[in-house]
Amino acid sequence: MPVVLATLIHSAIGPAAGQPLVADLSSHLVAITTGFAGTQVLLFGAIEEEGDVVVLVRGPGTDTVVRRKGKFWGLWVNREDVAFAGVPAFYAVASSRPLDQIAPPTLRARYQLGVDRLRLSPVDPAATGEVAAFRDALIRQKQESRLFVAEVGKVSFLGQRLFRTPLDFPSNLPTGTYSVEVLLLRGGEVVAAQTTPLIVSKDGFSAEVYDFAHAHAALYGLLAVVLGTLAGWLGGVVFRRA
Amino acid sequence: MQIYLPIAELSLDLFVVVGLGGVVGLLSGAFGIGGGFLLTPFLIFLGVPAPVAVATGANQILATSVSGTLAHWRRGNVDFAMGGVLLGGGLVGSTLGVWAFSVLKGIGQVDLFVSLAYVVLLSVIGGLMLLESLRAIRKRGRTGTGNRAKLHQHFWLHALPLKLRFRQSKLYISAIAPVLIGLVVGLLAALLGVGGGFILVPAMIYLLGMPTSVTVGTSLLYILVVAANVTFLQAYQNQSVDVVLAGLLVIGGVVGTEIGAWIGARLRGEQVRGLLALLVLGVSAKLFLDLVETPTDPYSLAVLWKE
Question: Does the model's ipTM exceed the 0.85 cut?
Answer without folding.
Answer: no
